[in-house]
Amino acid sequence: MNQTRTFLLFALMAVAYLLWTNWEQDYAPHPTTTPTATTTAAGGSTVPGAAPAIGTAGTESATTAAQLITVTTDVLRLTIDTRGGSVVRSELLAYPVTPRTKKDPDPAPIRLLDDGATDYFAAQSGLVSADGAAPDHRTVFQAAQTSYTLASGQDALNVDLTWTDPSGVKVIKRYTLHRGSYVVDLDQQIDNGSSKTWDGNAYRQLQRVNRPVPVYSNFLQRMSDQSQYGFFGAAWYSPAQKFNKLGFDKFEKEPLQSQVTGGWVAMMQQYFLGAWIPPAKEADTFSSATVDNEGTAPRYVIRSVGPQISVAPGQQASSAAQLYVGPKLPDALQTIAPGLELTIDYGMLKIFAEPLHWVLAQLDKLTNNWGVSIVLLVLLINLVTFKFTNAQFESASKMRKLKPRMDALKERYGDDRQKMQQAMMELYKKEKVNPAAGCLPLLITIPIFYGLYYVLRDSVELRQAPFFGWIHDLSAADPYFVLPVLYTIVMLAQQWLMPPAAGMDPTQAKMMKFMPLMFAVIFLFFPSGLVLYYVVNGVCRLLQQWWVMRRSDAAPAKAAA
Asked: Please, what's the b/e burial string for 385-404 (b: 16 or more CB within 10 A of its CB; e: otherwise)?
């Protein structure tokens, strides 16, 4: 396989990938609604689904007044609804919706949990009991104040919500937030002041709607929106079954019902996630459900129900868990819970994407610029593969010199392709030319291309990461298409420097002339960081190609002298 066929195959694979992802966006099966939204816990307790449902014993009517509590730390601003003590909003203060500019130096932060109807996403928790009073995620709690702020020099902040039943059962739901952390500790303390033993279960669940179908003004805007390709849905982990994704279209077909110890449940989206993490040694029941939200968009629930809790009269007991609402930072996630870093979903190309991300992260520590790190990554890869690419260019240069002799063989054997192939192989062997020299660089190039694409698409560190000049976000397309144009120029220069190989099919030769245009169109929609990689890589290959050809052309002159 010569260099020309290598580039052609690479282009066709890239085009096929784009077509496939867009086909999935348009024609993939859409989720259906099922009214099932309850889970039976150990002891016969039933976990309710959504707020419109009728409350269980001990819960107030949905019309009971509730209030919102704002809790602010250095990295999070949470909004807790006293109805159920649910976290209904979470703003990530270090991650703005749009890049900071001189015109807008303080843009609004990303809102992950959201109580709006369009993007509804809430972290809910509660208690259920088959025969006693228990506050679920629809019960109204009481709070001492409506605003909490982590003070300077303070490392932790407690927010207490209280519920008391006339029978004497009292529950304190305590959220604890920590400085510099996206992990929120939850403790549900049960104080049994009644005259009989209280039996029940604690549960935690994430409830959200599917994201609305985006409306694009044109094809270019749609193709440039990288967020439409990332996984959006539920996920869960167990030590036995490892990391599993549950798309919203699979909630009815493949419902989750599993006994897990040492796992977690989550809702994922590009760059960010929300996850409930039970204690590592606690045996929980993981389940999923779809809630019919009175004719509007259905809500999807993934929950974890803890083991039965028994509290004798006059005694106390508690149930603990952690809530993570934040960015997908690999170093942080792997310290919070086993397997949580797997939510950075590189799919089948994980084996290539993870090492690329690690190398880029180490380079960024030196340069403090992800764009410069990408340039250095190009140089490192070219240094490692120099010997292989050198062999490729040397083979291509030799084949270019053989063109007159190849043309002569074609005239001699005419339409007898078998004899022509035999003569060509003998010529290759005599001149020590390896026509397959372009295959190995291809095996290196394609995994790096797709691996780096997923790194740039799914790594939150590269979200809104600037380079220089007009590039303000390496994870987004080049706004002025400068890098795609530069890469097109580099490809044209390579074609000019290395004419079509001898014996190339005329149709293939015509396709090669359109290669720069094909790549220009493809790279219009790709993350600018990926195009930057290939511009620098193309320049390196062009210089190497020029050097090899100059040395090859000088060799006969020296021999003649």
From this structure: beeebebbbbbbbbbeebee
